[in-house]
Amino acid sequence: MASKTPLTEDQLAEITNILLERKRAIEEELRRNLSRVLEEGGEDTTVVNVEEGGESRVDVGKEMDFQVMSMRTQELRQINEALLRIEMREYGLCEECGSPIRFERLRVMPFAQLCRSCQEELEKEEKERQLALRPAPKE
Ligand SMILES: [Zn+2]
What we know:
Blueprint: H1 9-40, E1 45-51, E2 54-60, H2 62-87, H3 103-108, H4 116-133
Antiparallel strand pairs: 1-2
Bound molecules: zinc ion.
Residues 94, 96-97, 99, 114-115, 117-118 line the site of zinc ion (ZN).
């Protein structure tokens, strides 16, 4: 079977590790959040996130939990999709133009589905759309 992914097995393994690590952290965070919401009701609580590169302390209220949780759920979905693409050996190809996405880019953004030029194109279009919606700035 022809492998479509531009990445080597080692590179795929590295990305898989990054994704699985992230997935575990998110699942853990979701579980903690969920049990806290259930146990403590609406009180503000403090969560300590220990991640690579340091420790950050954030105050989180119940509504915040909700936002964070839906963000994390979304991220989980992206992780699962990326893992599936790795399994299908389709990982690392731009969804738009089909050209390989650089490994350095994937390492930083393992969910990237577009190559850099397509991403920039998309962002440019997005910006133009927003500019078109906004009244012209006064000089
Ligand atoms: Zn592309």
